[in-house]
Amino acid sequence: MLAMTRADLGKEPTEVAAMFDQVADRYDITNDVLALGQTRAWRKATFRALEPQSDDRILDLAAGTGSSTAPFAAIGAYAVPCDFSLGMLGEGRRRLPSLPFVAGDALALPFADNSFDGVTISFGLRNVADTSAALAEMYRVARPGGRLVICEFSTPSHEAFRTVYLEYLMKALPAVASKVASNPEAYIYLAESIRAWPDQEELSHLIQRAHWSDVQWRNLTGGIVALHRAVKV
Length: 233
Ligand SMILES: C[S@@+](CC[C@H](N)C(=O)[O-])C[C@H]1O[C@@H](n2cnc3c(N)ncnc32)[C@H](O)[C@@H]1O
Description:
Layout: H1 13-23, H2 27-34, H3 39-50, E1 57-61, H4 70-74, E2 78-83, H5 86-95, E3 102-103, E4 116-122, H6 131-141, E5 142-153, H7 159-180, H8 184-195, H9 200-209, E6 213-220, E7 225-231
Parallel strand pairs: 1-2, 1-4, 2-3, 4-5
Antiparallel strand pairs: 5-7, 6-7
This protein binds S-adenosylmethionine.
């Protein structure tokens, strides 16, 4: 569904921020449990896809607690975690005090044009109210030649696997979340937002329409997650 927005899922941007504020303290651990231990592999693939250099300036948008930013900082890049949930930023600052956390909205980024060599967003674009506007903002702040990598839940390509996965999403995930999460409702929203999100092909069209070039994607874990890459020419 290309035209899906937060409003369709019944959540305003302020409600999305408040929802992440509430889950911030247990976000990383819950994430790992619900992703059945795949988070580390997905982060590693995202890191490699961006091809970061140690002197790069990298924007990690919708960075939450900074877990998705840390691998870039670890190689010496100037990696900026940006998010609009003060709860997630606070938790991040407590755990990773060396990262330069910035409060900012993906739809009006507090950075100048052409500021970053690489822009990445992991499990965040789906939560932003206007996907195309966020892609345009990421394009604006990337320098010419700058790279984009989006890591996001997607659509498993194998039909039987897709059926089992959707069953997990709609039934097991909310049940497990009710045991481990601080706000189980957020994980019902997670399942619904994944189902409503564009598939691999549709998302690559949206990226192209935001003027990014050389758009490519590949599946991780059978398409549960997809990585989209593009360049600003
Ligand atoms: C699922 S978390 C992902 C966090 C992190 N990137 C990771 O991989 O663990 C999604 C994040 O998107 C943020 N977010 C949603 N809409 C946003 C917006 N318009 N601007 C900035 N951050 C946003 C939320 O606050 C939340 O921290």
